[in-house]
Design a protein that fits this description.
The complex is a heterodimer. By secondary structure, chain A is mainly alpha-helical. Chain A is built from nine helices and no strands. Classes of the chains: A mainly alpha, B mainly alpha.
Amino acid sequence: MNGGRLTRWDRWSMALRLALLQATWNYERQQGLGWAWALKPALDRFYPDAERRRARLTEHTAYFNTQPTLASLALGAVAGLEEQRAAGAPVDAAAVARVKSALGSSLAALGDRLFWLTLRPVAACVGLVFALNGRWFGALAMWACYNWIHLGLRVAGVEWGYREGPEVLGTPLRARLEELVRGLGALGAALIGLIVATVLVPGGEPRPMVFQVLLAAGLVLGMLTAQRARPSPTEWALGIGALCIVAGWIR
Amino acid sequence: MSVRMLATFLLGGVAALDATPVAQTLLSQPLVTATVLGALWGNLPLALEVGIVLQILAASTLPVGARTPEDYAVGGVVGAGVALALGSQQPFEVSRNASALLGVLAGVIGSVLGVPLLKWQRRRNEGLSRWCEEALGRGEEGALAAAQRAGVVLSFATGACLTAVLVGGALRGLQGLAAHESLRLARAWALAQPLWIGLGLAQLLHAFVQRRLTRAALFGIALLAGWLVLMVSSQ
């Protein structure tokens, strides 16, 4: 048995290693290997005996998948469980696997909505508002807007998960993240309005009528095609490009 | 091969890393990579024109669920790279627009062609994962770090090579077209640019609004207020 506790440096090291959670993402185990890699500093601390440590590491290479930023919460919580397990508490491999599975799926559901469906498009919109005015720092604004939440949660998440344990999402944190999703969604809608205005009147100079009509046509087409998953926006974009080349040739 | 071209290929590798295997900080997004390439090639306006269209399309493409989304990380670098390389050979406004059109198309095609390679990498990683588990069973703890390193190297190499092949191929095939048909291509750009921007923005708006009246109203108010402010400030 080992009574070692995680130090602040261990938790920081786990948060850093979480950057490689998807380095070996695959269809079979998905983030399994990356998860074991991120948890290794904790296992090194709890299990000085190499054989036991390797056994735990192998357990953790099993299937795991969640949203990569919020994985930090699950990582902290599971590190806390492993700490209890190493200290002799009645926590077995099946209990750890159950917590990983439960946290993984709920964090994925929340994280996909927060990061992929909301924060990333909102950050892109912030960047576009500046870039459409020819400003180079649009890219920087986009990067900063996304990463103060993304990197912040990646580092703080391990701490929160470790402190709160498997109930980390039962705390007011979930309510705060849901509120953030709602707020960002509303901000995103307003930013799209601002972008359309900027595209129509860049620098206060209205675009030609043909451009305005084509933009409106694109918006209508986009609204109609958004109702269906297929064809994807990329496939529509390719079709539009091909049609415009033909039109440019024969005009 | 010029240093700028080599740096473009390497940026393709970096973008491929940032997209999934390492950190996911949005360095791989087309607007960011286009801005970097614009500074590198000394033509920020052209890079931004291409980057904006590709960014809007990328933002409406979501990596959710089992679907492997189009690879706009490499696509963004290919698009801006092709446009800048073509634009550097022709100084005129018309040819700049022709380069932008060909760049966006190369970027979109690149993002589609990147998907099978992403799937191939993920299958390679399955082998890596099995090897790592066997090695851990044999007592080789260092196998975990080795597997992670291999995954990162594979992703970087794939991204850089795909960028090199696509940019090289596009330049070889499109240089003549951009030089001789720039007027027609510029006309096609004038038609395609607003349609692409409108299409992508509508997809984003649909995702944000989700049939909520308040958000639709916010969109309308922001559009009207932005338009009024821009019109009044220009007077």
